[in-house]
Amino acid sequence: MIDAPYDDAGLLPATRRALLHRLATGQSQGRAPSMVGAVMREGRLVWSSGRGELPGGAAAEDVQYRIGSITKTFVAVLVMRLRDEGLLKLEDRLGAYIDTPAGGDATVAQLLSHTSGLAAEARGPWWERTDGSLRPGLDDLFGDRPQLHTPGRLHHYSNPGYALLGALVERIRGENWYEVLRREVLAPLGMDRTTLAPVAPHADGWAVHPWADVLLPEPAADTGRMAPAGQLWSTTADLCRFAAFLTDGDERVLPAATLAEMRVPEGGPQGQGKSGYGLGLQVMQRDGRTLAGHMGTMPGFVAMLLTSPEDGIGGVVLANRTSCFEVADVAADLLATVADLEPRIPAPWRPLAGVKNEHLELTGSWYWGAAPFTLRLRDGGALELSPLGSGGRGSRFRPEQDGTWTGLDDYYAGETLTAVRTAEGTVSHLDIGTFVFTREPYEAGGAVPGGVDAAGWRAEEGIEGK
């Protein structure tokens, strides 16, 4: 995690200039009164800068901006902590925990992934620009048609859905969601500049006229019950700390395995390399990289946080202009600039420790029918199945206490891999969700369902009709 002061000495001069040029271009072309950006690499803030009008004497990385829907990722972290503690299950109905006029039939996972079918916005007037006192209770969040789609049917972004998740945290923890966030997430990660209301030095929010370079101030309302959907203020330094946590985890908050679970897109193709929305995280493909993070917009402000766990890099950009969507490209480009110009140095290769012979004997070539695969042993007894050739389904598998493995990716996600042994204890074949893998293509001996022709493989002259 980030525990060192701001220091860009780790980046090459050409990299630092490229970063500054991209930020300056984004602020100028986006006509933002100010724009600040930062890059996290290997858990540390390695570059930060700002352009435009900043509070006098303030360092760019310490200026607060409203971060909008990045707030949702913080709320999702709180919910996943409750899940990891056994206080709820993702498949539980929300109505099992709180009394709500809408959304009670949706599961916790559906609310996290915006597949609950709830309406996108709270009941009018425009909740982002009006005081939360207009919506004091959950009954006041929804209009005449709160449920637009059947839960689980499709992705439909819902701000009130995250207001309900904030209420869920309050119900289980017994205190305000932000106080829980401050104690359980912000304090352990050292994020003391992430707050519910602005604390100086902070930027003011502005709208920019579409056809003239003039400004209009935007209100910064306390949104009350809707706060879990977009209330927080933060800095690039704090969000780089959060990016480091989202990349590698922190046992005081959430382990890396839970964060990897949050990055899996819901309601669509499952597995690495897929775009969509996970459990509180947006997942996207850009230039061959899988990026995870979140965008945030509120009147007068726009923010983007992106991470590339594979590269160990995060990019953050904040601006104080309504609808300045350039920040998404700028954040992605800052991340890619460092990843491309200064690629990650691989960790030294080291042999595995504590390898079990019964695991080692599973490695090597396997065949599903006549399709070839390889099985490799990874750290901690994990297995990795890879197809050879142009097609086939691969996956990583996590070892379980009962001697089986559970698939983590794509088609085999959640499926069980079992090493089937003979009465003598030797490995006969692998069973992966009823698919049989043998050591030879269509190996004789009874393992292949439907049997194998006793005459075996034929040359051309052995084919009837030739």
Automatic annotation (TrEMBL):
Domain Beta-lactamase-related intervals: 25-333
Domain DUF7586: 356-439
SUPFAM superfamilies: beta-lactamase/transpeptidase-like
UniProt GO molecular function: hydrolase activity
Keyword annotations from UniProtKB, A to Z: Hydrolase
Entry-linked InterPro entries: AmpC-like (IPR050491), Beta-lactam-related (IPR001466), Beta-lactam/transpept-like (IPR012338), DUF7586 (IPR056008)
Any Pfam family hit: Beta-lactamase
Recorded superkingdom: Bacteria
Record keyword Hydrolase present: yes
Protein name: Serine hydrolase
Natural source organism: Streptomyces hiroshimensis
